[in-house]
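To: structure desk
From: M.T.
Subject: fold request, one chain
Message: Could you run this one when you get a chance? Sequence is below, nothing fancy, just the single chain.
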Amino acid sequence: MFNSRLRWLFKKYAAGNISEIEYYELLTLLDNQSSESEEEVVKLIQKEFNQFSFDTEENISSKIFDEIFNKIIQHPNSDLDKVHTEKKIGKKKVNRILFITLVAASMAIMLAVGTISKWMFNAKKTSARTNLVQNAVVPKVIYPASNTAVLTLAGGEQIVLDSAHNGILVQQGSSKIINEGGKLNLSSMKGQNAMVVYNLLSTHRANQYQLLLPDGTKVWLNAASSIKFPNVFKGSERKVSVTGEVYFEVAKDANHPFIVDINGINVKVLGTHFNINAYNNTNVSTTLFEGAVQVSSAGKQVLIKPGEAADVGPGNIYIHKANLAKTLAWKNEEFYFEGDPLPVIMDQLSRWYDIDVEYEGGKSLNNEKYSGSISRNVTLSDALKMLQTVTQVNFEVRGRTIAVKTQ
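Reply: Done. Structure tokens follow.
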């Protein structure tokens, strides 16, 4: 099936607003396309070429390809030593050996005529970029996070969850806990006589999971996160507690406010969509997407509106305009960076791929800022290669430890 992210990245390239990390990811995805998908890729290229003054036919002709290929030869980012240049391109079928060259060449000529005006990254570029990428050798494939979690029941029993084990896991009074394809569902009967017990759903690094609470509230757990919840909501409020990063779509119930506790910080809502990031215990951030929430801490409380975030630090609550795309990127299966230093980026990778990061060389990495996005579905090797194209460091993989070496 044709990769929808590949199509999206190609459109960003054609629109001139792709970042350098996204550009490398685009090339990586193109190189991994199946033969069935190649025809659609060529159609995408052809559509872009139709905007220029070339005398195109039904598909890219040999003449057009020759013009493109001459451009790629002259392009400073070309890597032609890996390509067999003696192969020919037909009108109906692109030879597999030259497929990625055709795409790269097409991009190069679009670049030459002004499709791309600038990179989003402000990092210094290096002519040794290709060599740096080749040095990022990963001895084994480290895959991204999977839908796996651990359910700790009220009595202490632990159940490992994944998308392969479906069905009713346990019944607690009138409540049933059901695992369905990577999501935990709570089915409960309402009533003042219902037995209430608390369970804990937690993810380790390289894990993520979803939860449907008994009131219909939807919960997404990022890697290294947890939520403590009752099997049934009883009384005047609906209360849970969390760690790590969690996204909520709260079911509306004006008579029973929904409260999230994060180490004594309370987020109170009636029905809304919001994200809580509590990875940094000294700075808990609540970002609101829809509705209204009240954030309380140490006797202080504030109301935030959609598009705002409340950062709770020692003795203070700071409200500011939120970057919604960046906040929600993890739920949308992306790493999203905007003016972030490399250590912040590596923190995200460490949780998602379950790796440790060490820094060697003594050079500060907090001055250079990077912007762009990477799919959270790529392997660690591909993610590091994309980063290495735009940073001034080398990555060395030692088992599950990544050494970041400054020059």
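Reply (cont.): The longest strand covers residues 238-249. Let me know if you need anything else for the meeting.
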